[in-house]
Write a structure and sequence with these properties.
By secondary structure, the protein is an alpha/beta fold. The chain contains four helices and seven strands; from the N terminus they run αβαββαββαββ. Strands 3, 4, 5, 6 and 7 form a five-stranded mixed beta sheet that branches. Strands 1-2 form a two-stranded parallel ribbon. The radius of gyration is 16 Å and the shape is globular. The two termini are about 30 Å apart. The C terminus is likely disordered.
Length: about 150
């Protein structure tokens, strides 16, 4: 995206290194312009190789599936999450729109997942250090996983 998480990070960790990635070159350009004065931040178009990090945060990455069938979008999302896990030394977090949201909020272009299924998948895939928050006002939930593969979290 355009680096919207960076100001939040800077409030608590002003000198932390930050790498933002996106598949859309225009979003990366917008982030570079918006945060040009931050010498501890870098923005790249993501390719096959992901940068390694202590923590990875994927916010809103899986919300819009356009015309992709829900099952194939879910498989794609899980594959992406597994790739990110492999390069995250201490943990990661991601969010998904909740299947328990009001039906009038579920557009056909959006992906909604069942939190209980995602929790089971995360704990079965990444180990027991999994958290699920289902109290966000935007009908989404976060899954956080501590202890990346470098920490033996499998």
């Amino acid at each position: 995206g355009y680096g919207a998480f960076l100001p939040y990070l800077r409030a608590g960790w002003p000198l932390a290194d930050y790498v933002g990635v996106d598949v859309v070159p225009e979003m990366v350009h917008a982030a570079r312009v918006r945060h040009a004065d931050d010498r501890h931040a870098r923005f790249d178009v993501v390719g096959d190789a992901l940068p390694s990090a202590d923590f990875a945060i994927m916010n809103g990455v899986f919300h819009i599936r356009q015309g992709e069938p829900a099952a194939s979008w879910e498989a794609y999302a899980r594959g992406c999450i597994q790739r990110v896990w492999e390069v995250s030394a201490a943990g990661m977090a991601f969010n998904v729109l909740s299947l328990h949201s009001e039906t009038d909020r579920r557009g056909p272009h959006l992906f909604h997942g069942a939190p209980e299924e995602w929790f089971a998948w995360c704990s079965g895939t990444f180990g027991r250090h999994v958290s699920l928050l289902h109290n966000y006002p935007f009908c989404e939930y976060d899954a956080g996983v501590e202890g990346g593969p470098c920490e033996g979290g499998w």
